[in-house]
Design a protein that fits this description.
TIM Barrel, two-stranded antiparallel sheet, about 40% helix, about 10% strand, alpha/beta
């Protein structure tokens, strides 16, 4: 396992981050412990969680597992989405975040969280209020660094501008969705992260399992996130994505790689990505993810894989700038 510096923080994180969404759900406590041990034995020191994962069970299980070597690990959690039926148990308000952080610390059985993410941009709460309460969490020592998940590039840069204007701690890590069939992050989010020296841990590098080789237009497994989870089913309910998945599975077989390994290696090869978030319901699924580190993702191989899906248009939509038919560049 190699380690990379996370943005401008100076902390070193493993090339892969374990997402613990399955803890307490698809993976019971016993299986979660096996997954965790495999990660530790493989050199992974980075574990991503959130307060809404399995209604808090994921944090509780992770908290038990990290006992004894907490300070050797980098742990994340998040707040934003509803945690109860109470109308104020959601969002980026001071009230919700202050409640959420204390509940997460208790479930994780720790005094601090290394990276605390706002799980989504709050359309109703002034961003200044959210950033101020996040700054208070850092000053209190409950949080070391701040992050943003599921934000657009303009939302991230707006937040960074406000933080720097007020001499507050800024977002040092972002968590966008990024995989072969979901490449929108390439347009503005990833270039912005490179420019601002922000760490990036992308989620769903296998497209929720779509790129695992198990799915086709007329072929679906009995179990799987795209089958059992309506949110993921809606996210990847596009026949073009299934076409890409089929071609990707054929290429993976031709190259002699597991589709899961190759999908993660492809996502990890983008220069903006610090490390992909991997996951699974058992250790066998996780082994394929860890084996992605063995793949030599050359620029030629990355391009060959990229050609299977449609490259998103550049932010200005001036696609001619990538050809000779333009006004010229500096």
């Amino acid at each position: 396992m190699k380690y990379k510096t996370l943005g401008k923080t100076g902390i070193e994180v493993s090339e892969l981050c374990l997402g613990t969404m399955s803890f307490g759900g698809q993976a019971d406590e016993k299986e979660s412990a096996k997954i965790y041990k495999l990660c530790i034995d493989s050199g992974i020191n980075f574990f991503d969680c959130a307060n809404v994962y399995e209604k808090g069970k994921s944090e509780i299980i992770l908290g038990k597992l990290i006992r004894g070597n907490r300070n050797d690990l980098v742990i994340t959690s998040k707040a934003y989405f509803p945690t109860s039926d109470n109308v104020n148990s959601r969002g980026g308000t001071r009230k919700h975040i202050m409640t959420a952080i204390n509940e997460s610390l208790k479930r994780l059985n720790t005094d601090y969280i290394d990276i605390y993410f706002l799980h989504r941009f709050d359309d109703l709460t002034p961003i200044e209020e959210t950033l101020r309460v996040l700054e208070d969490l850092v000053r209190s020592g409950k949080v070391l660094y701040l992050g943003a998940s599921n934000f657009a590039a303009w939302q991230i840069t707006k937040a960074i501008g406000i933080s720097e204007k007020n001499c507050w701690n800024r977002f040092e890590c972002i968590q966008p969705m990024y995989n072969l069939v979901k490449r929108q992050a390439e347009v503005e989010i990833l270039p912005m992260a490179i420019s601002e020296k922000i760490g990036v841990i992308n989620y769903s590098p296998t497209g929720g399992g779509l790129l695992s080789g198990k799915y086709g237009k007329a072929r679906k497994p009995k179990k799987g996130r795209l089958i059992e989870n309506k949110m993921y089913e809606a996210r990847y309910n596009d026949s073009k994505m299934f076409d890409v998945a089929k071609k990707f599975a054929v290429l993976s077989k031709k190259l002699g790689y597991s589709p899961i390994s190759l999908a993660i290696a492809w996502a990890r090869s983008h220069p903006a990505i610090t490390c992909p978030i991997i996951g699974g319901r058992n250790t066998q699924q996780l082994k394929d993810s860890i084996n992605s580190l063995k793949i030599n993702m050359t620029s030629e191989l990355r391009q060959q894989i990229s050609n299977l899906s449609t490259e998103p248009s550049i932010a200005t939509d001036r696609n001619e700038e990538s050809t000779k038919h333009n006004y010229g560049q500096r």
